[in-house]
Amino acid sequence: MPLTKTDFCSIIIIKKTTMKRVLKIFLMAIAYLALFILGAWSGAIHPACYAYIGVVLPLVSAFIYLYTCTLIRGFGAATALNGFTFVLFLIAGEADLAYIIGTVVLTALAEILRKMKGYDTMKGVRWSFVPFAFSFFAYTLHWWTDTEGSLAAAVEEMPAGYDELMKPVIDNIPMLIVVMALTIPIAMLAMRLAERAMKKSPSSGFLPISTTAAVKMLCKCQQHLYPVASSQTKSRQVPKQNHAKFPNENLPSSQIEKEKLV
Description:
Blueprint: H1 5-41, H2 47-52, H3 58-71, H4 77-92, H5 97-117, H6 122-132, H7 135-140, H8 142-145, H9 147-157, H10 162-171, H11 173-199, H12 211-225, H13 227-235, H14 253-261
Helix pairs in contact: 1-3, 1-4, 1-12, 3-11, 4-5, 5-6, 6-11, 9-10, 12-13
């Protein structure tokens, strides 16, 4: 059966929507990679910055993760972000065994928790972000799993005396435990801040296009293709119906999407 003009129009709308969503996910993955690189470069200031900066990175990564979750309403938000960085680090030779195992475990936990708590709920996003927030610690874990190798690499790659600065940081295990414990409440706070930022910008295009918005676009396309039928439809007097059973029907599409996530 040949496609009608309406079918062709709807296919174009779906393709454009999908392409925009994929592009946004790619941009979020690049932003997340840049955040990782920034965290790695902080070691040039002092070894303690490299070892403990993972506790503050969730204040930024929460916004990236939440936006990615609005684009990916099922499996894949944590996988897309960590997977993109993981593959590039493998290619660059920056992925050791500790990073590989840590990233896989944390990403799997994030995906499992989001599935258990609900893909279309903020509860699922909040819970899944907690293990995801520890992702940078998987990158710095080699300082404790391969201390000798890390110190030898510092002698070769960093300024003279850097390895001496690293030793007290590596030996201070209690401080590492405190920092990692603080990561949990900071991650929860960061996600709350990201939620508030989303709620304050309902018309900024922050949320992906919804089914309701796609239908509206299709209706406009039909009016363009069939102007006579559209004008006749407008001239008809349609009786008002009671929509009490569907309280969200007359709300803006962005508001509907946010209510699903609450």
